[in-house]
Amino acid sequence: MQIDLLVFPRWLVPVEPAGVVLEEHALAIDAGRIVAVLPADEARRSFEARETLTLADHAVMPGLVNAHAHSAMTLMRGIADDLPLMDWLQNHIWPTEGAHMSRQFCEDGLRLAAAEMIRGGTTCVNDMYFFPDASAAVADSVGLRAAIGMVVLDFPSAWAQNSDEYIHKGLEVHDSFKGNPLLRAVFAPHAPYTVSDAPLRTVRKYANELGIGIHMHVHETAFEVASAVEANGKRPWQRLKELDLLGPDFIAVHMTQLNDEEIAEAAQFGVSIAHCPESNLKLASGFCPVDKLLKAGVNVAIGTDGAASNNDLDLFGELRTGALLAKGVSGDPLALSAPQALHMATLAGAKALGWEQEFGSLAKGKSADFIAVNLDRAGTQPVYNVLSHLVYAANRDQVTDVYVAGRALMRDGLLLTVDEKAAVQKAREWQQRIKK
Ligand SMILES: CSC[C@H]1O[C@@H](n2cnc3c(O)ncnc32)[C@H](O)[C@@H]1O
Ligand SMILES: [Zn+2]
């Protein structure tokens, strides 16, 4: 049988079943889909491929899913550090966004982010930012899979004047890429402290009618929870529950402040959590109780947040930090094992987006979203355990090949869909404008 591509890696990490590593196996790909995962000799006998990729020193695994990012914030990387969330947002980030936000900012920021994300093995991003039309256009042009946040706020920005306009412009964006298999719209009400009840009800109504997910910062800091209790007499989680927001289509980002009852409810409602360990550490926001959440059966995915709070979009870094942090927070070295961490960065992200039938693991019928990591480096030898290396030892510079739906976005370290030099030049120009 003739197919497009046969991949022969040294190690094949399908992610599901958890903990499995296949050797002497191949990935057979045709028309953007995995048509078989099979022993290498059988692959050679069964298929004639237009292209063969032999990755003798590499682990091939599903592409990484960034479950929470503000991609275009790459243009504000390093603009304000070593601050708590509200000081960082109110006195630095929001004034800069207020002064410079435009469609061009978002396009240039996202293109820079795309170069960084693809280089680091990210194949899907759940994005929340202004000008989602620009994010969709850039994601489409570089071939990244993306969930595009239809941002909702009570306050005006260069993108929309009020919550009604945010919602309706978001819905127009949603309509504009219907039928594009790599793009999906997700409502993105920013946070409980920036979106009032009425727009949240409207979001829930449209989400139900159109089958769209909802992605929101929730319980990021103790200050957020305490000020909500002072203002409304209830915790934000309780308010969102009363507004009927919590459900399997809801992605709660951060969740560093959770009591045992809320953890049980997250499982009961089927809510997914986007854990952002490095952003939470840098802003000293608190610790998401990942171990307790996983034990309660909650789907926990992993995200970077924006590059202005992280300060990168490196999911390999996030994987390692997340795994170490879970152990430190729980006091249990068994917490968030390497296979669990890899699941979190792949299939759990796809599940959070309601897209797990399509990608997140390497299995017959799924979209060919995969990456190759070269382990033939001093820092990842010898290889007793590939899964251990992918979480605890490898870094993003070891990613050599990145494919989304069978299309190569990076081959042997060469970006194929983003002009990185041009993106970097634009970033320099924005720096001049912003820091005048
Ligand atoms: C309305 S687009 C997204 C909005 O969120 C801001 N933002 C970036 N990082 C965080 C964070 O960790 N918590 C809350 N808000 C954040 C970003 O600057 C945009 O204004
Ligand atoms: Zn965020």
From TrEMBL:
Catalyzes the deamination of 5-methylthioadenosine and S-adenosyl-L-homocysteine into 5-methylthioinosine and S-inosyl-L-homocysteine, respectively. Is also able to deaminate adenosine. The keyword Phosphoprotein does not apply. Its cofactor is Zn(2+). Its EC number is 3.5.4.28, 3.5.4.31. This is 5-methylthioadenosine/S-adenosylhomocysteine deaminase. Belongs to the metallo-dependent hydrolases superfamily. MTA/SAH deaminase family. Zn(2+) binds at residues 68, 70, 217, 305. Signal peptide: none annotated. Substrate binds at residues 97, 190, 220, 305. It is an enzyme of class 3 (hydrolase). GO terms for molecular function: 5'-methylthioadenosine deaminase activity; metal ion binding; S-adenosylhomocysteine deaminase activity. Residues 60-408 form the Amidohydrolase-related domain. Binds 1 zinc ion per subunit. NCBIfam families: PRK09045.1. InterPro entries: Amidohydro-rel, Deaminase_MtaD/DadD, Metal-dep_hydrolase_composite, Metal_Hydrolase, MTA/SAH_deaminase. Keywords: Hydrolase, Metal-binding, Zinc. The keyword Metal-binding applies. It catalyses: S-methyl-5'-thioadenosine + H2O + H(+) = S-methyl-5'-thioinosine + NH4(+); S-adenosyl-L-homocysteine + H2O + H(+) = S-inosyl-L-homocysteine + NH4(+).
